[in-house]
Amino acid sequence: MAIHYMARKMFDEGAAAYVKNMITKSIELFTLALKYDSEFELGYISRGAAYLKLGNIKKAMTDFNRVIKINPDSARAYHLRGLAHERLGDVAKAYQDFDYALEIDPDYTAAYHSRNFLISKKEHTDFSIEELDIINHLMAMRISRFDQDEESNDLAA
After folding, report:
1. Which of 19, 48, 63, 94 has the most CB atoms in a 10 Å sphere around its CB?
2. Is residue 122 part of a domain?
3. What is the C-alpha to C-alpha distance for residues 125 and 49, in angstroms, rounded to an integer?
4. pTM here?
């Protein structure tokens, strides 16, 4: 389904406001975008992230749950919902969401970082080192891919 033009326009303005740390304004613009396209996943994720940044965890969770309903394979929605659970103090649910995000997308390094942070808070040092090794491996793979892409671009020029 194509994203409605006005939804995209309002979203872009909301993203610009978010980057300028105008979080309340970004929420207003993301909300307008969602009025034009009620299935706009990125609109819900972004508004949820803005709510999370303001500490409005309940509204953030509502938006992340909406994305998961629209697209059950959204690793980003599970990761962000995990961050919301963590802010609420529900470490078990946070860990579960980070785990599920990684099940969907094993290369999603932000979820590894978040999960590792939870683990380090609980002082499970051995497992924490294992998690860091996985993160380092994935980052090295991405750097290697980036270098290969750069070489390909240089050869094509």
Report:
1. 48
2. yes
3. 30
4. 0.76
